[in-house]
Amino acid sequence: MFSHIMLGITDFKRAINFYQPVMDALGLEFRFVDEDQPWAAWQIAGSDRPLFLIGQPYNKQAHAPGNGQMVAFLADSRQRVKQVYAAAMAAGGECEGPPNLRPEYHPHYYGAYFRDPDGNKLCVVCHAAE
Fold it and tell me: The dihedral of CA 80, 27, 49, 37: what is its sign?
């Protein structure tokens, strides 16, 4: 469905320091980094799409997080949700909802919500019954 998703950031080094441990916990593979742009991308191992990218806005304007926008990453287990959330918190993320069942979405929805250091809202979720 998606080719890529990109989130704007303000401080590239700070963003890499946040996203690398989060992507590692998700099991995503580092695709590239270009500090001159600056931008970086991750992908599912063995696949070239979709990509998740971070970078400073192309138009050189200031980054601003959106209200009501969120990127949700799929986790293969509830334990993975917990690991990703812990990595995000340890890397400077802000909690928007700790790992938990959220039956208002569906009976097996197990997710956690957090913001990166630039205020972008992220989620990691497992839909499997465990």
Answer: positive
